[in-house]
Amino acid sequence: MSTLIQLSSSAIQYQLHMAEAVSELYPTQELAQQLQQALLRQPTLIDTHLSPQDQQQLHREITRLAASWQLELAENQILVTHGITEAISLALRHLTRPGDTVAVETPVYFGLLQTLESLGLKALEIPCTPDSGLSLEALEFALRHGPAVKCLVCVPNFQNPTGALMPDEHKKRLLALARRHGVTVIEDDVFGDLYFGQQRPTPLKAWDRDGDVIYCASFTKSFAPAFRLGWLSGGRHHAALTRLRDSSSLAASSLLQRVLADALTSGEYARRSARLRQQLAQQMQQLADAVLAAFPHGTQVRRPQGGMLLWVQGPEALDSNQLLQRALQQSISFAPGVVFSAEPRFNHCLRLKFGQPRSPGLADAIATLGRLAREQLVSRVSRQRRQGLRGWPKRRQAGVPAVAPASLPARPQAGYGRRSGRDAPRPPAAQSPAPDHNHGHPARLAWRKNGSKMLSSCAAGTPGPRSLITTCTHPGCSAHDVTSIKMVLPGAL
Ligand SMILES: Cc1ncc(COP(=O)(O)O)c(C=O)c1O
């Protein structure tokens, strides 16, 4: 993640790697004036905390906003945080201890993996599809048969990176499932306000009658990214979360909170976010069209109904990390699939932001990316032909479990440099020898439903604290050796 952040301050011209919109999409001039006016009107904003009245006003406006999308909250159940990152971090610190396991979506926002790692937590990755988000069947299986899960972090509205929107019925079922298993849900609704349809999607929290969902939201995407204003509503955990926040960051900036409160009260926030949504929706279509026109045959794109991210699934043989190396030489960046899981499951995928207005330069950049991807595949085929191997790598067939290498490679650290082994010529996937994934024992099919399969298997070696740990069906296997659950679901990534 730090490498991606460093790319943001580099001279790369077409930066499509972070989940952010360019500054032209925000009303910077108006915000500058409002900041100045607020400070002139109320100079104490520079040296004191927000007054109780001002705080009450902000909390009241946030509850009004939430009520407009069916989320009824009390004013004293709002805690303003430093972005949603602080809100999620507080929730995790409150609910877990180092060594605990946290269920997350896969592919997952890489910042969350980093937060989990910094807190010494393990991630149990549950498949998520661009169609409807987190697989409830997979989650149920993992909760029944996997290690004890302390909590679940999920992004039901416009998930990062897939853009998936979870249907309301799934949200209700997810809540019931979590409740049955005593798992607290941390809901990350960072993109909820950036919807392209008629209505903002309802958060999971709206159906939470037990106060067990810790709802986290943010104004960083929809209002002013660098203001870093997020918030949470912690249900029955709220008091404990407030104490934790007091002992960590104490309070958010008074001046910035004041300007946000005014924008909410005057209706400016609603007008600006509507404009932003309209622009993002248009840019999403343009980017998706450009990708489909330029990328190799077999590339799949699911147009999201909100947010600012486009998840591109290339042909299986595409190596998006290698593609990034070539793209950087052309002054183009994106987030390669490898950063969205602790395991190398999404190497053929990449994430592009559509927070940048269309321009001839951007169109050329996408065309260049597509050309580089096609060239990579062509050169791979030529290499294979030279090596005397016939045939194009076949796409995984439905029902055949995904396999990970026997010793799982570490995730790339800084720089996405060339990595020996991965960059070296390799035979087509279909002809690779099957890795010994199960201590030499055949993996056992543990679960089958509606034509979906889930495989419980064990693998030697642990890839680090992010690895997921789940059931092993082999009697001689100790829990410490079990590092992988392979899930194959129809349409799963
Ligand atoms: C899913 C998800 N959660 C959290 C964050 C962090 O948001 P914030 O900037 O409000 O801390 C991001 C940022 O892109 C994100 O995509």
The largest sheet, given as strand count, sense and whether it forms a barrel, is:
8 strands, mixed
- Overall average residue pLDDT: 82
Oligomer: single chain
> Structural class of the helices, strands and pairings?
alpha/beta
| Element pattern in H and E | HEHHEHEHEEHEHEEEHHHEEHEEEHEEE
In total, the number of strands is 17
Q: What percentage of amino acids are in beta strands?
A: 15-25%
CATH architecture of the largest domain: 3-Layer(aba) Sandwich
Summarize the entry for a quick read:
With 493 residues, this protein is α/β, with parallel strands linked by helices.
Describe this entry's structure for a reader:
This protein is an alpha/beta fold and 493 residues long. It folds into 2 domains: 2-20 and 272-386, Aspartate Aminotransferase, domain 1; 28-266, Type I PLP-dependent aspartate aminotransferase-like (Major domain) (Aspartate Aminotransferase, domain 2, 3-Layer(aba) Sandwich), CATH 3.40.640. The protein is 34% helix and 15% strand. The chain has 12 helices and 17 strands. It has helices spanning 2-8, 28-41, 52-67, 83-95, 110-118, 136-145, 168-180, 238-248, 254-266, 268-294, 320-329, 360-386, and strands spanning 14-15, 79-82, 101-106, 122-129, 133-134, 149-154, 184-188, 213-218, 229-233, 300-301, 309-313, 332-333, 335-336, 349-353, 444-449, 452-456, 485-488. The chain has an 8-stranded mixed sheet with strand order 2-9-8-7-6-3-4-5, sandwiched between helices. A 4-stranded antiparallel sheet has the order 10-11-14-13, with helices on one face. Helix 5 (110-118) links the parallel strand 3 (101-106) and strand 4 (122-129). The site of pyridoxal-5'-phosphate (PLP) has 13 residues, from helix 4. The site of pyridoxal-5'-phosphate has 13 residues, from helix 4.
